[in-house]
Design goal:
heterodimer, A: about 325 residues, alpha+beta, Glutamine Phosphoribosylpyrophosphate, subunit 1, domain 1, nine-stranded mixed β-sheet, B: about 325 residues, four-stranded antiparallel β-sheet, 8 helices, 13 strands, beta-aspartyl-peptidase activity (chain A), autocatalytic cleavage (chain A)
Chain lengths: ~325, ~325
């Protein structure tokens, strides 16, 4: 009997102390939602979509409700889901007017022969599936609006809309959410969702909806979701690199650590990783996480226990109730 | 120090006999143009952008002028460049009204902090760089219209625009173009560009603009450009897989074959790749190409010598004329 396992993250960044409680509560609740589905015999894909949907609905995180704003003050969302059985995948980027992009990503996987839809095509597809577009105002929080205004006010280097920026974008928006899971049949899945970074150029796509960067899942290897500086993650195909390390025999923890070290040395930038690796017999999995940012909110459930943390080296543990 | 080398491809698909000569001429001309820049400026990035631009301008290839049409009968283009020195990258997807998407991709890399811009955002950025959009219809060829009409006639399963398609897309247009090069300083670069597949869902993004799927480049390893069934390439991160095999010590030839074998077994689908491996321990960069489609048209130049081909295990060669 395979023990279902799930681990979720709520973003790797300089999470302020004022947000740590909400972030920890949010990832724990999302992990519980996903694990409940696994416990009742649901698939790994069902579980990661449920967990990420919960994080999208939670305004503490930069995904769905609570997403940060692009340079024009609009919301553009990216998300992905990958099924480790056959590497099927669905993703969206630059999706607008949607509360749960991860669910639209799943529909891309299940209802089309494509892996990624962008912009208006993604929004039109969503509507064709019976999901009505909602106004941006429903997704935008006061925090996201404040962050955007702060950026616009202090970005003295910006004279015209698209001139090269020497001022780095505000880094407090790197709180992509994600989940990876293994179900009772031993199948793996991964999902990631984000609003991107505050004041990103309209149309900017980060790592989150990219197979091999924001997520990776393969039943024979493991499952990964990443968060952090998107461009750095993309340049090294971070999720795929974690997978490669696991194939070489690294534990999930070691793989996350080694891949993040490589990224830091090769291109710079900080990020966080959650991962599940299959053991040699394929019957169980190791859970791992690592981050090179100041903090990363995460939570995992397996074997009747829930673990969580937000600071480096921190891991709280308690029995999972009922 | 390395021997300056370039290899280009004009797509992996089944070429009709009456097209073979004209596409061979096309890749040879593109390789020559890229090689002249390699010797002139000594810069691998200049060389791949020049070579791919030449193929975008050549209506016989599915990139820039000559791009295939999406389900709405529109052109939407994807392109990428990667600089192997520092893994800097720029890409666009769903770009319209642009004759040379690979040049806009390069501008994304050089003028922004981002790696990928989509659709309207990509177009607005292009305009901000002083490149005026051209009417999309200027990019449309008779051949693209004929393929689109053929698809519509035989696609009896499609009642509404966005229904899941059980009929596979017309496969005769998987002719993304690409180039990889190594310059005299040992720097590698890769570039890929495409109009995508006929009758793709509007907004569909394939492998061509994705780091690790359509292209990969790292001075420490080598450079790769891929072409073929985009969704299969994405699901296995084909370009990154080849890089990984090169890291493990495989030759460019072996890595190409093994990666395509893996893709075929794990997710199905056919494709073609061009590879230059870094000089590494042996001190000699190697060039390779491999394809599991019926044909792939390619041309390579090194040491004043040009080789080219289109059929499996077939190659012509000649000394480069001054």
């Amino acid at each position: 009997m395979i023990e279902p396992t799930i681990i979720v993250h709520g973003g790797a960044w300089d999470i302020p102390s004022s947000l740590t409680t909400r972030s920890v509560n949010g990832v724990k609740a999302a992990a519980c939602k996903g694990h409940e589905i696994l416990r009742c015999g649901g698939s790994a894909v069902d579980a990661v979509v449920a967990a990420v949907s919960a994080l999208e609905d939670d305004t503490a995180f930069d995904a769905g409700h609570g997403a940060v704003l692009n340079l024009k003050g609009e919301v553009e969302l990216d998300a992905i889901v990958i099924d480790g059985r056959n590497l099927e995948s669905g993703a969206v980027c630059g999706l607008q007017g949607c509360a749960n992009p991860v669910q639209v990503a799943r529909l891309v996987m299940e209802k089309t022969s494509h892996c990624l839809l962008s912009g208006r095509g993604a929004t039109d597809f969503m509507e064709s599936q019976g999901i009505a577009r909602i106004p941006d105002t429903e997704l935008v929080t006061p925090e996201a609006r404040n962050e955007w205004e702060t950026y616009v006010k202090f970005s003295a280097a910006v004279r015209s809309l698209f001139s090269s920026r020497s001022t780095p974008p505000v880094t407090s928006g790197c709180d992509t959410v994600g989940a990876v899971a293994m179900d009772a049949k031993g199948n793996l899945a991964a999902a990631t969702s984000t609003g991107g970074i505050t004041a990103k150029l309209p149309g900017r796509v980060g790592d989150s909806p990219i197979i091999g960067s924001g997520a990776y899942a393969d039943n024979t290897v493991g499952a990964v979701s990443t968060t952090g500086h998107g461009e750095s993650i993309m340049k090294v195909c971070l999720a795929k690199k974690v997978g490669e390390q696991m194939e070489k025999g690294d534990t999930a923890d070691q793989a996350a650590r080694n891949a993040l070290d490589f990224m830091a040395q090769r291109v710079g930038g900080a990020a966080g990783v959650i991962a599940l690796s299959k053991d040699r017999q394929g019957a169980a999995c190791q859970v791992g996480h690592h981050f090179t940012t100041t903090r990363m909110a995460w939570s995992s459930i397996s074997n009747g226990q829930i673990r969580w943390g937000i600071d480096p080296g921190q891991e709280m543990i308690s029995p999972l109730n009922g | 120090m390395s021997v300056p080398t370039i290899i280009v491809h004009g797509g992996a698909r089944t070429f009709e006999p009456d097209l073979k000569e004209v596409v061979k001429d096309g890749v040879r001309a593109a390789a020559r143009q890229g090689y002249d820049h390699l010797i002139g400026s000594g810069n691998a990035m200049d060389a791949v952008v020049e070579a791919v631009s030449a193929m975008e301008d050549n209506m016989v290839f599915n990139a820039g002028h000559g791009s295939m049409l999406n389900l709405n009968g529109d052109v939407e283009m994807d392109a990428i460049v990667i600089d192997g020195r520092n893994l800097a990258s720029g890409a666009v997807c769903g770009l319209q009204g642009c004759a040379n998407p690979v040049q806009v991709a390069r501008l994304v890399m050089e003028k922004t902090k981002h790696c990928l811009l989509t659709a309207d955002g990509a177009r607005a950025f292009m305009k901000s760089q002083g490149i005026q959009p051209i009417p999309n219809r200027e990019l449309v060829t008779q051949k693209a219209v004929v393929e689109f009409e053929t698809y519509k006639k035989y696609s009896t399963a499609v009642e509404k625009v966005m229904l899941s398609r059980s009929i596979p897309p017309v496969t005769s247009d998987c002719d993304t173009v690409g180039a990889v090069a190594i310059d005299g300083n040992g720097n590698v670069a890769a570039a890929t560009s495409t109009g995508g597949i006929t009758a793709k869902l509007p907004g569909r993004v394939g492998d061509s603009c994705i780091i690790g799927s359509g292209a990969y480049a790292d001075n420490a390893v080598g450079a790769v450009s891929t072409t073929g069934l985009g969704e299969s390439i994405m699901r296995v991160c084909l370009a990154r897989r080849i890089a990984e095999l090169l890291e493990k010590g495989e030759t460019a030839d072996q890595a190409s074959k093994h990666a395509l074998d893996f893709m075929s077994k794990r997710v199905g689908g056919t494709a073609g790749v061009i590879v230059i491996s870094a000089a590494g321990v042996s001190g000699t960069a190697r060039v390779a190409h491999h394809f599991t489609t019926t044909n792939m048209v390619w041309a390579a130049i090194s040491n004043g010598y040009m080789r080219w081909g289109i059929d499996p295990d077939q190659e012509e060669s000649s000394e480069l004329k001054a």
